[in-house]
Amino acid sequence: MSSPDPSRLARFLDDHWSSPSVLIRSARDLHEPEGADPQHLDQAARSARGLASDALELGIEPLHDLASALADLASVLGSGALDPLGPGGVVLESGARTLEDSLVLLEAGGQPDAAEIERHTQKATHVTAGARQQREPQPAQPQPARPQPSAPQRWGPWNPAYPDMEDDFIEDVQSHIDNLQAGLIQLSSGTTDEELINDLFRSSHSIKGQSGQMGAQPLERMAHKLEDILDLVRQSRLTVTPAATESLLGVIDALQSILEQLRSTRYVDHPIEREMEIMDRVVRGEPAAVSRPEPVPAPPRETVQPPTPSPGPERPAARKDEHPARTSAEKKAQYLRVDFSKVDQVMNLVGDLFINKIKLHQGVDALDGLQLQVIRLQHLLAQQGEGAAEGVNLDEEEARKLLSGISELSSDIEGLADRLTAATGEADMISSDLHDQIMIMRMVPMDSILGRLGRVVFDAVQKESRGRPGFKRARLDVEGSDAEIDKVIAGMLEVPLVHIVRNAVAHGIEPAEDRAAADKPPEGRVLIKAGQKGGNFVIDVSDDGRGILPDQVARAALEKGIVAEEEIEGMSEKEILSLIFKPGFTTAATADDLKGRGVGLDEVVSKISAIKGSINVDSEPGRGTHVTLSLPLTLAINTVLVSEVGGETLAIPMAAVERVVSVEESEVERMGSTEVFTLLEKTVPLVRADDMLALDRPRSQRPDEIYVVVMQVGERRFGLAMDRMHGKQDVVVKSLGTLLGEVPLVAGATLLGEKCILILDPVDIAARIGKGAAPRRKTTKPPHERIRPRLLLVDDETTARIGLRRIFEEAGLEVVEASDGAEALEMASASHFQMVSTDVVMPRMDGYELTRRLRQMDQYRNVPIIMISSKGEDVDKRAGFDAGVDHYVVKPVERSALLELIGEVRL
């Protein structure tokens, strides 16, 4: 028995450690009352044959012979040719245990007992031969090797041999499919990297072995054939041409489709024989039609497991003086599989921790204030002891004792404050560390996305060159594939990047002849650079193609009716280039499935805006185009700059903040319709936050000195005018939900203690510079309806008031706002309202007390009062109805439900 290569032996043992267990379990099932499941015996036979094949390749002939004999015996038992209670089951189990012991010895570095293996091989062969003789009484004929049965058009149902391993199996096979796709594209470029070829062979071999163990016959059969092809490539007996690559990529698509069908429906509907014929033609060097599997009605793969990194297509062939690139199996071992829903649960806990940390800080501040009050009391009592104060009748001894007690109380408060301060510091460190660790858990390498774009480039080149071999050539290079980004953002990036890369090949890269005439290499290059820059994650996609001609863009935009001619005349070159992102824009003369339909880049803008990112395009005619995506590092927890304007507290994402400067109102100038100020000898546009948010504050109430938050969004730099600054704060970003989903200029909301504040959207603000305030929804009423019912809206949260005001105005009501119960009561006394909407928890006077006071007033005894609150317990609702409200609505409020309620109330 020869000694196999240690690394190959390790892979062999890893692939087949469970094969003996499958055989043993099937043998034991034979003695159960219901007998053995023929399907399980068939799975056991296939698992043993896979082991036999790999053992022969490693040069371990005795294991090959034993595994083959046991596979034949399991097949005979499954066919019913042997009595299940006879000796066959005993021989199968004892042989499988010998096989298992042999694998254990090999793993420990020892040598299996060849004589013992031979003895069990002969037993199994003898029992199998006897069964065949009984079944076939005619003269014995030489038994040819049994051909692999053809998979039917419809196969199933799939019953995994190890149900608890199904998720791992799906993820592993997916990883190997991604690896095969990326590697085949590299092979088509003519590389002879031996490690790459071996890695692809191992991927196909792993799919075959794991599919055999899990009973996924269609995958096993196709992977086996693909493994044979890659073995020919490994032996330099077959060259993977671009045509062959296209055929094999179709087979990879079929593998992907079959995997999805197994996962989602348990059945496979696919012409397997067609894929086998395609691979046979590749071996013979004949052209083959590309396989296009039908789409599978299954949920997206990303919703099941986090994406597994796969080797990108950009990896160059390893030089002899370099360390070889890590294989897919080695990279896989470095990742811990964590269900993303569990990570999200922990992230929610982190959010609660941040909120409670803020409350703890506020408690310490309150304790400090209490200590100051005690000090003032000490001072007053000291004066009483000296006879300096009036109205307090204490003798000197009583005053002394009281002073002593207060002194002790002050000491205790001081000690408590110290302990709270220490605890707060510790909570800060823990929450910060926990935040960092959770963010690391959420991160995935960009390779999980970029690794698939090599296929996009390859397919785009093939479509452009269809019927014209070599018409267009291009490759994808990637820098920063190991850079990590938040999984949620990564999941939304794939579609935009596919559109950008396809456009680079279809519109940017010239035909090979044109490139040669322009002294360029015949093969075009699309380069993607990814990495963190400051507080943003930046992805730059560039090509060395023909570039974008502004005149051509302007002409196409005019022809498509996207802009008017007078608008074009007032645009800069950069603004003209940005027109390529408008819906319906295209410069292609004819439409096909790759270009010319006017869709694609507008979807890029939509997707990038949804994750609060920005996009910028630069181009140099004849040299190429750069598309830069600037993205937030995460959508979960952000550092913001807390500021105030017009009495409203707002948060600004620090990722967009360049600096904060103090500017006198006299230093602000006007250029056309835009206010500007000078910073370091450069003119910067100034945005008034109160005007932009339509806070309706008179200019006379603005301070003489303002704080300007200078922000950089893409290529646009501007200042946001605020009244006060409250410093940086780590906050949990919360969605605005359905109630406030259409509020402009706002990216989300967060809680600071008990107060909800809005987080501004720098990208949206930058886009609105020069366009005035955010638009409000206007309702046009006929003359006889101009007198609208008036509603008093009472809520201390600006976020809630903005959303509720929009809904009430949509319902045709004139809305007057109050920030707490006391202010609302004053307004209700001075004027009359036909309806009242109030929150519960508010400063000075809560909603319950406000309702009781209103019901005591004659003019509000029968006025409808709606209580809208996040307090949704039954006891809260009862308290509201006891106070006198007509309807109790729990936040978050659905717009349609509230509009329906208003209609009922007005009836």
List keywords for this structure.
single chain; 907 residues; alpha/beta; six-stranded mixed sheet; 48% helix
* Sequence stretches where pLDDT stays below 50 over 5 or more residues: 134-152, 294-335, 775-786
What is the distance, rounded to the nearest whole angstrom, between the alpha carbons of the first and last residues?
Answer: 94 Å
* Amount of beta strand: 15-25%
Number of helical segments with 4 or more residues: 30
Overall geometry = globular
* Helix/strand class: alpha/beta
Q: How large, in whole angstroms, is the Cα Rg?
A: 37 Å
Number of strands: 25
Helix content: 40-55%
What kind of sheet is the major sheet?
A: 6 strands, mixed
Q: Biggest sheet, strands in spatial order? A: 12-16-17-15-14-13
Q: Average the pLDDT over all residues and give the rounded result.
A: 77
Which helices and strands occur, and which strands form pairs?
Elements: H1 6-16, H2 19-29, H3 38-58, H4 61-79, H5 87-107, H6 114-135, E1 154-155, H7 166-188, H8 194-214, H9 217-234, H10 242-264, E2 268-269, H11 272-284, H12 328-332, H13 340-385, H14 396-442, E3 443-445, H15 447-450, H16 453-464, E4 473-479, E5 484-486, H17 487-491, H18 494-508, H19 512-517, E6 523-533, E7 536-543, H20 550-559, H21 565-569, H22 573-577, H23 601-610, E8 614-620, E9 624-632, E10 637-645, E11 648-653, E12 657-664, E13 669-671, E14 674-679, E15 682-688, H24 689-692, E16 705-713, E17 716-722, E18 724-732, E19 746-752, E20 755-760, H25 762-767, E21 790-794, H26 798-810, E22 814-818, H27 821-830, E23 835-838, H28 847-855, E24 865-869, H29 874-883, E25 887-890, H30 895-906
Parallel strand pairs: 4-6, 11-20, 15-17, 21-22, 21-23, 23-24, 24-25
Antiparallel strand pairs: 1-2, 3-5, 6-7, 7-9, 8-9, 10-11, 10-18, 12-16, 13-14, 14-15, 16-17, 19-20
Helix pairs in contact: 1-3, 2-3, 2-5, 3-4, 3-8, 4-5, 4-6, 5-6, 7-8, 7-10, 8-9, 9-10, 9-11, 10-11, 13-14, 16-18, 18-23, 27-28
